[in-house]
Amino acid sequence: MPHYQRLVMPLAALLAGTAFATSAAADELNIYSARHYDSDQALYDAFTEETGIEVNVLEGDSDQLIQRIQREGEASPADVMMTVDAGRLWRAEQEGIFASVESETLAERLPDAMRHPEGKWFGFSQRIRAIFYNPDEVDADEIATYEDLADPRFEGEVCIRSSNNIYNQSLLASLIAHDGVEQAEAWAQGVVDNMARDPEGGDRDQIRGVASGECDLAVGNHYYYVRMLKSDDDAQREAAEKVEILFPNQDGRGAHVNVGGAGMVEGAPHPENAVRFLEFLSSDEAQALFASGNHEFPVVDGVEIDDVLASWGDFKKDSLNVSELGENNPEAIKIFDRVGWR
Q1: How many angstroms separate the CA atoms of 155 and 190, rounded?
Q2: Residue ranges for the binding site for Fe cation?
Q3: Signal: is it a keyword of this entry (predicted)?
Q4: pLDDT at residue number 263
Q5: Beta bridge partners of 265
Q6: Using an 8 Å Cβ cutoff, are 79 and 29 in contact?
Q7: Tell me, what's the pLDDT at 31?
Q8: How many CB atoms are closer than 10 A to CB 41?
């Protein structure tokens, strides 16, 4: 039996009223979550088992949850907001959703790159934006970096999602941080020139594009590929088996890293419980649960990982503080607009 109350609400309900009775009871915690993984139940149950604190969860889209917290104002019962991608965490931060947290446990357990400089939010799982390629058409040595995707020799060979996709926005934000605005814009223009088709679909659609021969190269988050490899759907599994994954920039900064993360809500009615939960998310037990539900990488070293992820061995990950992905998000959107990335 789950130790928590879970509410999955439609848009109209999300933007009106309050999810839970506002209470200062010491033995509960209210989480607003944009994560939609059934495996998170085990995470909440483990926290309750360890602390005795009952967990209430409201699930919805990240922007809708931000709006709800704002509408609820000082009466909001929200203690913690969880979401995915540094861009969304940054948006919540800019809207004043998060309070600063000081925690020796989080400072010791989490790498610097996974902590907001002011403790506004923390990254608890890593997601790699990888390159996928057709091994019958492309040699892995030809596509060593993200920058190579803009090389004219790959004209008409790249499948990638639209510019309104937050994962692509964060990838471009990382290029702004490393290469500067001018070079990042040149890269975006080069990728547009190399597109095999107008951007469409999700990450799995890009992988399927490579498998079908529509394109030879694609960009997507690693866990979509793992989902396809482990799918009960024969078509998805067979498509993934035709494609190889590549982690770029291994001779330089490393592969682009984004996060699933969380922060304590400003004015949280249960601030001590909120901090305990954030600290719990950095524990080995929680790290394994948090990451395994979506085949993501833990942020704490030494935690057991998914078998497919383990088969890839060690590789270099970008150590850029993920807060910079959010800070560069507005400029990334402007670049996409200027180069006509639809």
Answers
A1: 9
A2: 36, 223-224
A3: yes
A4: 98
A5: 98
A6: yes
A7: 98
A8: 17
Cα–Cα dist 137/154, whole Å: 11
CB 140 within 8 A of CB 299: no
Q: Which two tokens stand for residue 323?
A: 């807060």
Domains defined for the chain, CATH in brackets: 4-126+258-310 (3.40.190.10), 127-255+321-339 (3.40.190.10)
- Binding-site residue numbers are 36, 223-224
The single residue listed with the structure tokens 């995470």 is: 43
What is the chain's length? 342
Residue for token digits 């079908």? 212
Which amino acid is residue 62, in one-letter code?
S
| Residue 209 identity | G
SS (H, E, C) the chain: CCCEEEEECCHHHHCCCCCCCCCCCCCEEEEEECCCCCCHHHHHHHHHHHHCCEEEEEECCHHHHHHHHHHHHHHCCCCEEEEECHHHHHHHHHCCCECCCCCHHHHHHCCHHHECCCCCCEEEEEEEEEEEECCCCCCHHHCCCCHHHHCHHHCCCEECCCCCCHHHHHHHHHHHHHHCHHHHHHHHHHHHHHECCCCCCCHHHHHHHHHHCCCCEEEEEHHHHHHHHCCCCHHHHHHHHCCEEECCCCCCCCECEEEEEEEEECCCCCHHHHHHHHHHHCCHHHHHHHHHCCCCEECCCCCCCCHHHHHCCCCCECCCCCHHHHHCHHHHHHHHHHHCCC
